[in-house]
């Protein structure tokens, strides 16, 4: 701090006076490093906040990619179902010309075929929308991915061990802990602000035929103004600790629910897989139909339930994969 003053004498015979003061103030909040500590803690919290946003974006991408795989598999299923219905309709139309099938049977298959075509078209629209969103999120680099397979991920065998590591690295919980650290640093800062400030400087006074030089020392004593700040900082830390404890409890509770849900849906999916393996006689039906051992009606009556079971399997796997998306929470 530099201060210069010029004072003229009055009456006229009094000598003018010039004063120059140079001083530097010091406070314990700066000297102790408490201000720097608060700034560093806040910076770390800001970085963790960015990690929270990044993790949320990864979770969004994970969910979109999972849905894209599901819709792609549905598209393939629709193609197979439509092909079976189309072949059945064509055979029935020929049979009707020969008097072996009725218009009611033909129209019934036509309605199913049209319904299937519409569902396939809507499914493709949804798939195109999801892929378009993924391309937008990828930016100029684009994406080189055919949405054929789900992300490889296996359920942890031991929830307790897995959840400990997950909680330690989760950015949302890290942010809650960082807020506690900031509040703790704030308490130290407010306490140091209650200590005296002092200044050290050089001073000179110049008048005609006489100059004065020397040093200046000053002390500033805060009395009551800082006590309220310390109390507020302590209250803020208590609130941050309560919020961190609540966040940790809620996180583990929610994680347990997601884990149990994924386990249940995995069991359902595996059971569906077993049932489909045991009941898959499509190749046998194809052979019997080609050898004319069964009629087109018999073929349709047996093949469509098998196709519907396959769709149930696709849906069951998707439910399980969506549960894994929630469980991963952006850790991909």
Distance between the termini: 55 Å
The largest beta-sheet arranges its strands as 1-2-3-4
Q: Total number of β-strand segments?
A: 4
Return the average pLDDT rounded to an integer: 86
Percent helix, as a range, is: over 70%
What is the H/E string? EEHHHHHEEHHH
- Proportion of residues in β-strands: 5-15%
Q: Which residue ranges are poorly predicted, with pLDDT under 50 across at least 5 consecutive positions?
A: none
Major sheet: size, sense and barrel closure?
4 strands, antiparallel
Q: Which class of secondary structure composition applies to the elements? A: alpha+beta
**Discrete helix count:** 8
Gross geometry = elongated
| Gyration radius, in Å | 39 Å
How would you describe this structure in keywords?
four-stranded antiparallel beta sheet, 4 strands, 332 residues, alpha+beta
Summarize the structure.
With 332 residues, the chain is α+β, with helices and mostly antiparallel strands.
Structure characterization notes:
The structure is a single chain. The protein has 8 helices and 4 strands; from the N terminus they run E-E-H-H-H-H-H-E-E-H-H-H. The chain is elongated.
List the helices and strands and how they pair.
Layout: E1 2-7, E2 17-26, H1 28-31, H2 34-97, H3 103-138, H4 159-169, H5 171-193, E3 197-207, E4 210-220, H6 227-279, H7 282-290, H8 296-328
Antiparallel strand pairs: 1-2, 2-3, 3-4
Helix pairs in contact: 2-3, 2-5, 2-8, 5-6, 6-8, 7-8
